């Protein structure tokens, strides 16, 4: 897959999974690295602090495009 870099970290695996899906819908391959027993022990992430976070990784050459796509996750939501 080439050299991988951490593009963003998330406190919960499901947030990382949503971001991965967003990237992959735009043609960017991504993987998640998390110490949560493949999602079976999500409490392990919250007990390990920053090191225990779910990490989203992409190929080095996809960083800029991935960052642009993920900006949507940082925008506040509005209720109508």
| Helix percentage | 25-40%
Q: What's the helix-strand series? A: EHEHEH
Which fold name is given in CATH as the topology?
Answer: Alpha-Beta Plaits
**Main sheet: strands, sense, barrel:** 3 strands, antiparallel
Average pLDDT, all residues: 82
- Overall 3D shape: globular
Q: State Rg.
A: 13 Å
Strand order of the largest sheet: 1-3-2
Distance between the termini: 42 Å
Can you identify the CATH class? Alpha Beta
Number of strands: 3
Percentage of residues in strands: 15-25%
Number of helices: 3
* Tally of separate domains: 1
Q: Detail the poorly predicted runs.
A: none
Kindly report the name of the CATH homologous superfamily. Hypothetical protein rpa1041
Short characterization:
This protein has 80 residues and is α+β, with helices and mostly antiparallel strands. Helix content is 38%, strand content 21%. The radius of gyration is 13 Å and the shape is globular.
């Amino acid at each position: 897959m080439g050299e991988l870099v951490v593009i963003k970290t998330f406190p919960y695996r499901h947030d990382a999974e949503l971001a991965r899906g967003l990237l992959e819908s735009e043609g960017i391959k991504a993987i998640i690295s998390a110490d949560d027993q493949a999602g079976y022990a999500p409490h392990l992430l919250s007990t390990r602090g920053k090191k225990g976070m779910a990490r989203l990784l992409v190929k080095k050459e996809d960083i800029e495009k991935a960052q642009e796509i993920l900006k949507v996750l940082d925008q506040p939501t509005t209720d109508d």
